[in-house]
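Q: Here's a chain of 298 amino acids. Please give me its 3D structure as tokens.
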Amino acid sequence: MAALAEKLEFCAVKQLPQAFDSFFEFNKLDSETSDIAFRLFESVDRLHNFLLWSILPFMSDIDRLVAYIRRTLTDLNAPPTDAAYEYASVPLCVIDAVFSIGVRYESTERTVTEFCARYHWQRDGRGKEKEHTITEFLNILNPYGNRWEEMAGTVFRNRQRTSSRSGILKAEATYSFAKTLQQFGVETFAEVLKSGLRNDLRHAIKAIPGQASGLSYAYFLILAGNQDGVKADRMVTRFVADALGVRNVAPELAEELVRNASKTLRGEFPKLVPSSLDNKIWKHQRAKEDVGAAKCRP
């Protein structure tokens, strides 16, 4: 079944579009003929979807996800191009990982960029610029003590909370996150890659209010260079649910399936790692939902 699904995917994703592109390029069609051709393409695409979904019940979860990835994602060998993957210092990964949960990412980008401008830190250029440590970061935060509102407004210029219901300020969560890393001797990228996967450190981070899901820590590890990381947030779990044809998928299952899908596809895409697949899935799902939201607007 998996082999049949792959053949269907190859036909729909590779052969058919190329054939139609060539046809349109070499035959200057009038608008009426073009419309007929596009309708034909849509009919073939619907037939492909019907055939694929007909065999889904007989496929394993990992085969379903791999088939869906082949159909929806492109450039699987290409590494992420996001500036966040090139942060020059670990504290910037902490800020991003905490502030990005549950909000539009643009607000997080502004928070990181403005922090760097305010304290004259280089944002990008990992390995090429001065690497500021967690202790240096805490030296900026410590003078505020427990005055979290003041820290949020002055240092981060961002008063978002970890939850709309009784959540703490993300500024406080960021401080606690950094303090925990310091207590475990994690100051630089090298130390994150050496000690970041320790279960005791993971549990200590998850004990911070608002961090129980572990999503911020998973994303922190990805930003700090852990290529095996997957952040199974709502975008990733929705993508996996769509692939499996179900309504919801547990984050733990989504994380496991994405990681295994990366391994399955690596023979064909040798540069594909779980963290880059996670990134491509997230971007695809967000774009898909943005289009859906736009269509719903009056």
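Q: Can you summarize the key feature?
A: Residues 84-207 form one domain.
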